[in-house]
């Protein structure tokens, strides 16, 4: 480094630090005895690299020359460079020692030796920490000087810069426009009249103020009972009292207001803008977790709301009460999201420094009830439909009295003298009749008032008479009261018409109002006209008669909305198809909408529609207004809605016999999009450049759009003829994957890693849905509960954690083992968990209480594998003491000790009929044991090396075994005869599994491949290539359609079992992926 300046020296140190970290990683996978020291050195080297990387950024920046203290770091940099050089030299020397090292590694032997003692590592780390501290101190000095200098020059501009910075950081939180109660979209929505809901609002006030009150108040009620009006009133009263509060008013069919994706970021943003001190903590959370907006809802609540609020402790300036108002939770698109929100908000009780109160309204739908059923004791509730009728009638009467008087006064203010409504109109008798018609539906009263005042129509007295004349419909057995609410308005459209006129009017209604109530998000009159291919005037004329049931804005470019979701429910109710003239056939209208969307796309979409021109121009550089101008609302709707209506998925599901060309093209273009999605998202015009030229030469998409390839690309890349196995690479873990498993419903894949975390992935899309953090060391074993709602994980930190698979919240931490937990599994009835540990014991835990019921002792060495029998009566364990033990679940008694192996028992499996147990051992044999007698009925010989995996076929006819001798053997379960020896792997076979239909066998190997075999013929039907290191674990999904594999290349791959296509690659671990000594029937 002689002659180099500080900036150049930094680069040299960076390169060496990266090299040392990389060498450590290679040693980590090969040298088990020193893994702790290796990991410590690797972490400290990476930490040093981060600090030096920061120094490089500053020194090479525009102000680098003025960083005087940092420029004097040269001597420290030389010392660090010298030390790292010495470390690298020793590591390389040992790594390259012996010409046969690579050969030995291929054979599964680890020949490398760690060149440092623990004390040497301690000394190295101490020196690195000293240099790192010097770098950090110098940088802090320079930064402080710089800040002070700026402060001296600019004075009070520092605080303004902070405010701007905070706003910029908070802007990283995506929010849903129109979700807050006081947003412009909700400006004209009603609140409770001062004389209505008096007792209920007083009860809600008492709940809010009660320091010992429940954290949630659930107000439920049938459609039209006034829940939303009450929630807006509660939110308004809290705001008037200056209580820091956030609100989210769900609205189905109103874009993001019907989704939960941005629920918690919206709540956090609202609270942060009201509480400056909270904003700083939220800002810190964003800085620490830059991708927090993509994290699970549970993590968002914890990091953006709960933890910032808890940092308020002992701050006298902080308010004692913070509130959240959630309206119409039942209108959340996904039921599991609604349930998750209930569960997560129940954690409001964990807010230690403030009283966090959550007010929720919803219909009493089953999923919502189930959600509240899971948090018994954490909420207070009131059902509006159970409030005594006299109280409801009194409130509705007060509402009608006020609204009708206002209508009278507004009408009289513009009516000529002599035509005005009488001062006492409509009178208490009429109000009483109307209230009785409405009870218990406030929506009936509100709709009647809008109908009576329908602007541009006749005298309100005449309109009211029509209501009173119609009251017999409320007693018609064909209609419920909600039907009568809307028929009152709609029947006026066809009153007095001839049959032909009625048919014409109903057809117009169907063509225009039908799409409006079915749209996934509201559109304006202009956009509706363009989408439906009708005149703007036609849409306007049709809607002009429906002001009572639709919120129709005065401007044709503002969206048309439903006043209440019950109007849609009324129109699409299939049970009323023969009695409701206005009934809308949902299926047929969706087909029509789909056709119109396709036509709009065909007519308007074109190359470079936004005028980007340059293929390298980033999406982030394009002004949103330019996008809106090029893609007006009706085109955006047409492009996005195809996914919502499932059109593409339906077409993909067509069998080749039905539509070979359509199905083939859609599959190909789906692969095309998936393979280039990340670059297209960053730079859209790359769809014509890199996305096309890097596609396989024979891809249908590439051939079809060959003319779109850029002419300036004169020499294209070398590509394969067809799509290869791997579709996507999904990243996230920071170390090796140790265990992978499918959820029993096949919807999720979970992975446990040496980075101490568990990740839950969407099996269909490969998206990481949750990252579960909490273990302080490596995660060895993971398993789903039979109903897919819970997960359990076992770790090197000696604990088991139970997780909510929906929210990602850790429900319980089970403490009791004194050694690493190697295997965990739920009982079939979901009540128990059994775990096996390096402390030589097995523990049975109560899932509900988190306590261990029994400790099963008897093994004299580590317990590698535990399984429940399907009938829940037995537990079987395999151990390094060469034995298998069978335990009685009820008593904890060891019923049988199965002895006979002369080596460690690596894998055990129950037969589906519970009569047999198979065990595979390091002694190269498989033994079949009679569960009832404990006798070894057969010893299967044939393998020439350690057997790492055994399994029965679900139909009980066959067994499969995988061995370090690189073969898979298929055995006749009845006779013990080896019927097939499947050869083809080039290294140890780590895992074997049957598909649930018993037709296929999958095997994963250290040769980095997964193979799928025909169980009957022994033919290798697929060789799944794509892993770059050992494959340790494979497992079919319960429906036999998918297969997952875990590898030492730190990835999990999901494969199509029929085609051998790699559908997803889940990437992010930085160390091995394996099923840690776990013979659970799932991965």
From TrEMBL:
The keyword tRNA processing does not apply. Residues 1-22 form the signal peptide. It comes from the Eukaryota. InterPro entries: NPHP3-like_N, P-loop_NTPase, Quinoprotein_ADH-like_sf, WD40/YVTN_repeat-like_dom_sf, WD40_PAC1, WD40_repeat_CS, WD40_repeat_dom_sf, WD40_rpt. Keywords: Repeat, Signal, WD repeat. Pfam families: Beta-prop_WDR3_1st, NPHP3_N, WD40. The keyword Repeat applies. WD repeats lie at residues 730-771, 772-813, 814-855, 856-897, 898-939, 940-981, 982-1023, 1024-1065. Residues 203-363 form the Nephrocystin 3-like N-terminal domain. This is Nephrocystin 3-like N-terminal domain-containing protein. It comes from Lasiosphaeria hispida. The lineage of its organism: Eukaryota, Fungi, Dikarya, Ascomycota, Pezizomycotina.
